[in-house]
Amino acid sequence: MFFQKKKRLLAKPDFDNLPQHIGFIMDGNGRWAKRRGLPRSAGHRAGAKTFRDMVRYCKDIGIKNMTVYAFSTENWKRPKEEVEAIMDLLRSYLKDAFDHREEEVRCLILGDTAPLAPDIVALIKKLEDESRDCKQMTLNIALNYGGRAEITHAVRELAGQVQRGELAPGEITEDTISAHLYTAGQPDPDLIIRPSGEYRTSNFLLWQSAYSELVFMDVLWPDFTRRDLDRAILEYQNRDRRFGGV
Ligand code: IPE
Ligand code: IPE
Ligand code: MG
Fold this sequence. Notes:
Layout: H1 2-10, E1 21-25, H2 29-35, H3 40-61, E2 65-72, H4 80-96, H5 100-103, E3 105-110, H6 118-130, E4 137-145, H7 147-163, H8 174-179, E5 191-194, E6 213-216, H9 226-237
Parallel strand pairs: 1-2, 1-5, 2-4, 3-4, 5-6
Helix pairs in contact: 2-3, 3-4, 4-6
The chain binds 3-methylbut-3-enyl trihydrogen diphosphate (2 copies) and magnesium ion.
Residues 25-27, 69-72, 75, 198, 200, 202 line the site of one 3-methylbut-3-enyl trihydrogen diphosphate.
């Protein structure tokens, strides 16, 4: 019994059969800081380190699409200082991320960037433009993102096309809707990981996660390691995905 458990703990995922697209709900930064008697901003700083390491690891093992939930449409409810601390971390990430060009990582922001500070909007645009042709991995950063807001945005665009006579209502299909989401052209996530012990997806990739495998883990995001990702992938590889078939 003990041996079996140990064997499972030591098992490695099959790196030749990886999920194409992994989503990460980066949660638990605040609790991580609280346990250490630190301000919540220290938790976000530690979480940002984990994020950087995960980008590198995912790219190195050959994940093709990675999406991280960095800031939700609901996170504006938090104290102003906390929102500012998160935006500052984002600023420094976006500046450093120009290095991604060498690493062949294409970066995209999922969400409405209009309410963000103008310098952040400019950094995003620069990064998206300059990494456009990078081929190794696509990194989506969900920022001021909400699944419902994303679908609402897509519906508005389609309604505009119908109003202008460019599209008939009967021509709207699941594919047309997918093509108007922020993730247009990318495969749906195969695996979504939520650390921090919460069992919900909090408005993350609502449409795209219809058939995603969900893995919930107890570890807090700042403590999340490469080994934790291996474990999540292993769990994913042991699932039986049926997509409604038999
Ligand atoms: C996730 O960590 C980061 C963001 C939502 C920006 P939290 O800040 O939600 O951490 P907990 O859930 O309070 O521990
Ligand atoms: C989800 O975490 C959003 C991000 C990780 C950015 P939250 O901490 O905001 O989610 P809830 O409030 O626990 O559902
Ligand atoms: Mg949280």
